Amino acid sequence: MASLKTSHLDIAYEDRLIVQDLNISIPQGKITALVGANGSGKSTILKTMARILQPKGGSVLLDGKSIHKQSTREVAKQLAILPQNPTAPEGLSVYELISYGRFPHQKGFGGLKEQDRKIIEWAIEATRMNEFSDRALEQLSGGQRQRAWIAMALAQETDILFLDEPTTFLDMAHQLEVLQLLEELNAESQRTIVMVVHDLNHAARYAHHMIAIKKGQAVAVGAPEEVVTSEVLREVFGIEADIVTDPRSGVPLCLPYELYRAATEGKVRPGKKDDSANNKVVSFL
Fold first, then answer.
1. pTM above 0.85, yes or no
2. Which residue from 5, 36, 160, 250 has the least number of CB within 10 angstroms?
3. Which residue numbers delimit the ABC transporter domain (predicted)?
């Protein structure tokens, strides 16, 4: 199973430094969620760890070797990435899309071998896309399309799977469909999954390990109960929140109720009242 970590990683867009001296390790065989406010650098970090972006300094180490010094084909045998809003040529079938995942394992200009077809069928079965394999992608729902893309990534047979906000633009049911699929894949094959997650409660529910990013820095790292705290949410997102325990899963749930600056400035928002006797804001939640 491949190991992955960053060592003194610097990332820049032109002359603007986005990430500086980042040192994080991704637990093997676990689901890791990168969380943070918009513009915090979490997607940039994911893309650099997946070798899409070139670092300005430092390194991303895959099995102890710099990932940016390895060949594209060799890296593609060890990790797959599903970017935000992936696109495919019109009319491409689900089976054809998934078959692209076998490219790193093919030699020369040869077509699909029997082993390739077995892996493709396995990926279709694992993502429950059997009845859709001959359909064009544009004929599928958002959740079905996302499952097809995940199947393509699975067909690469990699130890590590990166996903950049895999539930973006999906409704609540399709979000759960995708996240539960990833949870099953991790449980069944111990595949290392690293994903940028917009919803904190989804991150806490489905990830074993969380990394909270602020201005390109990891300010909190650990299990959900170590990261989803009032103090971390105040620092990373600038919000005041109550943290309660999910009665079913036991993971922390975030109940945000106001911006941190509003609380510190003593502003009263609708739905709250000013307890002038104690000179503090009282929540009705």
1. yes
2. 250
3. 4-240
